[in-house]
From TrEMBL:
Keyword DNA damage attributed: no
Membrane-spanning intervals of the chain: 29-50, 62-83, 95-119, 131-155
Species the sequence originates in: Punica granatum
Entry's family note: Belongs to the multi antimicrobial extrusion (MATE) (TC 2.A.66.1) family.
Superkingdom of the source species: Eukaryota
Keyword Transmembrane (UniProt): yes
Protein name stated in the entry: Protein DETOXIFICATION 27-like
Name of one Pfam family that matches: MatE
GO cellular component: membrane
Keywords: Membrane, Transmembrane, Transmembrane helix
Coiled coil start-end: none
GO molecular function: antiporter activity; xenobiotic transmembrane transporter activity
Signal sequence region: none
């Protein structure tokens, strides 16, 4: 859904209405955060939902456990993706690259701690993802707010609350387009869960 910003921010930047980039990003934060809240039951009740789809109990239970630990990651998307589109539309890709490098270093260090030292297994991997994605959010936000985008970030604005419905429709159209591209793989994973030796099949497919 954040892909809507690619169009809106690109047009605003080209028209030299620089302050509108910040307004659009704030609208995207509001819309995406609301969608994260609406999708929260899928994370909270992942185990019974997967069992309803015919997944093996042990696989569904582990998936449900991981899903609950990934809720912070889920909410980080609402901020990270709009920030990325906001900066890309201004050709500030170097900032994204440096912050991504920082996130990678944090990811390696936290992975080593939680997975290898504390032996937390799959839960440790989920916690690691939470850390690294929120490092991306705070890194990109810090760059934006503390002087990296003086023309396009003028602070929080009440203007972001206007025209939300039109923004929702454009964001939904962008989201549906990308979902259709990605769901074929997710459907494959779900179908694989119905095979014999489901754990091995899903593991192999995930690694691939």
């Amino acid at each position: 859904m954040a892909s809507a910003l690619e169009t809106l921010c690109g047009q605003a930047f080209g028209a030299k209405k620089y302050y509108m980039l910040g307004v659009y990003m704030q609208r995207s934060w509001i819309v995406l955060f609301a969608c994260c809240v609406l999708l929260l039951p899928l994370y909270t009740f992942a185990s019974p939902f997967l069992k309803l789809l015919g997944q093996a109990d042990d696989l569904a239970d582990l998936s449900g456990l991981v899903s609950s630990w990934l809720i912070p990651l889920h909410f980080s998307f609402a901020f990270q993706f709009p920030l990325q589109r906001f900066l890309q539309s201004q050709l500030k890709t170097a900032a994204i690259a440096w912050v991504s490098l920082l996130a990678l270093l944090v990811h390696v260090a936290v992975s080593w701690l939680f997975v290898y030292q504390l032996q937390l297994g799959v839960v440790g991997t989920a916690v690691t993802l939470n850390f690294s994605w929120w490092v991306l959010v705070f890194g990109l936000l810090g760059y934006t707010v503390f002087g990296g985008c003086p023309l396009t970030w003028t602070g929080f604005s009440l203007e972001a609350l206007a025209g939300l419905w039109e923004f929702v429709k454009l964001s939904a159209a962008s989201g549906i387009m990308l979902c259709l591209e990605n769901w074929y793989y997710r459907v494959l994973v779900l179908m694989t869960g119905n095979l014999k030796n489901a754990e091995i099949a899903v593991d192999a497919l995930s690694i691939w």
